[in-house]
Each structure stands twice: as structure tokens, then as C-alpha cells.
Design goal:
By secondary structure, the protein is of the alpha+beta class. It has one helix and three strands.
Length: 62
């Protein structure tokens, strides 16, 4: 599945007491989701969806 080590670190943490996952991409952007598949798709789609927050429309979860 992987071509080898890239040095990229992805972190996903479950927020205790909720159904929410909090992810941090290797680029530093953060994202929350209740769906683990959607979370991984967001991370692995880098850089799509990883624009700076100032360019992100309000109300989006990306």
C-alpha cells in the first residue's frame, strides 16, 4: 500500500465522551469528524481541503 517511509505523521485522536475524532495532518491542519473513513480520506487527500482557514468558507468541516 505504501511506497516506503515518507516522514509524514498523521494523528487521529478520539475525543473521550463523544463520537468525535480529531485529526492532525502532517501539514499541521486539523479536522474533526464522526466518520473514521471520512477522516482518513481528508488526510490522504492532502493538499485538497487543507487550504488556510482564512480561505475556508464558514460552516465547512474541512
Amino acid at each position: 500500500m505504501s511506497a516506503g517511509p515518507t516522514g509524514e505523521i498523521y494523528r487521529i485522536a478520539w475525543l473521550p465522551g463523544t463520537d468525535v475524532l480529531h485529526g492532525t495532518c502532517h501539514c499541521g491542519r486539523e479536522h474533526t469528524s464522526q466518520d473514521p473513513i471520512e477522516m482518513w480520506e481528508w488526510m490522504l487527500a492532502h493538499p485538497q481541503g487543507h487550504e488556510p482557514a482564512s480561505h475556508e468558507p464558514q460552516g465547512t468541516s474541512s
